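Write out structure tokens for Colicin V production protein.
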Amino acid sequence: MVDISTIIDAVIIAIIAISVVVAFFRGFISEALSLIVWILAFVGAVKYYESVGEMLPKLFGNSMSMLSGEDSIFGALISFAITFIGLLIILGLLNLLITFLLRKFNISWPDRLLGAFFGLLRGMFIVAIISLFIIESPFKDNEYWTQAKLSPIASSWANTLAGFIPENFLESINTSVIAPAKASIEQNSDTLRSEALKSVL
């Protein structure tokens, strides 16, 4: 049987390894810009996801009504994802344009090694983002996560990243996503236990 904790460790290693390898071949300039793109997209999403969440229902009508209202469960998370991905695409295209203009310069080995270093930082940043949502969710106490050998390291990166995030963002995620999800999980667990007892009796 496959150990889920081992898979989690493998995913963390794969994210960082792929980022480093890609960065090595792309070089320092491209990867430095890429890391800046990821950071700016994340900072922009944290800062503007609420405004985007308010705009989307007005632009798309009832199809986006789930993004508004105090009782929205996934509104904050969806607004953040849309804002983050949108900024990532826009800034990524700008990065491609700048990289294209710089392609006439030969990429040296020092440039590749520096690129790999920035790729390492980017991989750590991606893992930190994913881990941040995990440690803010009920899954943080799951045995698969707690038994993963790399989870303490990933959690420490996430906690460092959390220090740069406004408290109202984490509170919004907890209120609109984490708390309702946890309540739903607990309710379903109670229902399953009740049905199991009834079937036994």
